[in-house]
Amino acid sequence: MSETLVDAPEAVAAYLRARTDTDVETIVGCFAPDAVVHDEGRDHVGTEAIRAWTNGVAAAYTLTRTVRSVRSIGPATVVAVEVAGNFPGSPVVLHHHFTLTDRGIAALTICP
């Protein structure tokens, strides 16, 4: 990923590192049991749905991710990630909006 991760909360940094390696179990372990991921117009609620979403992305695309920036905005962390791969419009910078609790990532919204 990048040196920028030193500015990210541990759960966010762990998620981003695991995404780079497509380490599904570590990715899922970063989330609270009732977490919600919103990506490509769909909500994935709970760790089983997040596991399926992660596996689906890994099966559909070959991706590289580069963290461009990390910002804290109140209780949220926003990470700009350049994503390149086998999809139309590649590369693109996607903003990952994380909401954290003491149980891990409670919500993640991914948008342009």
Automatic annotation (TrEMBL):
Task: Please name one Pfam family that this protein belongs to.
Answer: SnoaL_2
Span of the signal peptide: none
InterPro entries from the UniProt entry: NTF2-like_dom_sf (IPR032710), SnoaL-like (IPR037401)
The SnoaL-like domain covers which part of the protein? 12-103
State the name under which the record lists this protein: Nuclear transport factor 2 family protein
Query: Which source organism does the UniProt entry give?
Result: Pseudonocardia yuanmonensis
